[in-house]
Design brief:
This protein is of the alpha/beta class. The protein is 36% helix and 21% strand. It has a single domain, classed as 3-Layer(aba) Sandwich (Rossmann fold), CATH 3.40.50.1470. It is built from six helices and seven strands, in the order βαβββαββαβααα. The chain has a seven-stranded mixed sheet with strand order 2-3-4-1-5-7-6, sandwiched between helices. Helix 1 packs across helix 5 and helix 2 packs parallel to helix 3. The radius of gyration is 15 Å and the shape is globular. It starts with a strand and ends in a 5-residue tail after the last helix.
Amino acid sequence: MADAWLVVGLGNPGPRYAATRHNVGQMVIDELAARRGETFKAHKSNARVAETWLRPGGAKLILAKPNSFMNVSGGPVSALAKFYDIAPDRVIVVHDELDIPFDTLKLKTGGGHGGHNGVRDVAKALDTPDFSRVRVGIGRPPGRQDAADWVLDAFGATERTTLPILVADAADAVEQVIGEGLVAAQQRFHAPRP
């Protein structure tokens, strides 16, 4: 597809994980689908998919949520890219990021995985790290709490008041990367909030 983008939200499957920090990427994909009145359907790639458009007459969007666990996200992402014939430079992965403060977004293309096993698996399956990432800050755990436990916890009460804005901002960032390019989106979302 000439003007198509694969936008994947990383997370873990099932209701047990739906509201956890590790699933914020899938929350963003849900927001993008909701804005367009789309619902997800099962796909043979082991993912749930909604096919839609950036805007009428604009780029086609393949919104996807893998059914696999986070650390093995690469298989479904690679299968979707092959099925829709989408090159890695037209793939956007939305995921949680421990090393970014909560309520902050960072956007990039390529580079390392920063210890994020889902991103690592996607890069391995696509055979390149050169895909775009919308990194949604969840911050580090307080005190001595283990990071693995932190990402599998639900957002705290204070965080939940801000979470809808963060998810909407991340969805806006995806739309801007596709519509205007990565640099324009970085200039907007990397700037301090007024």
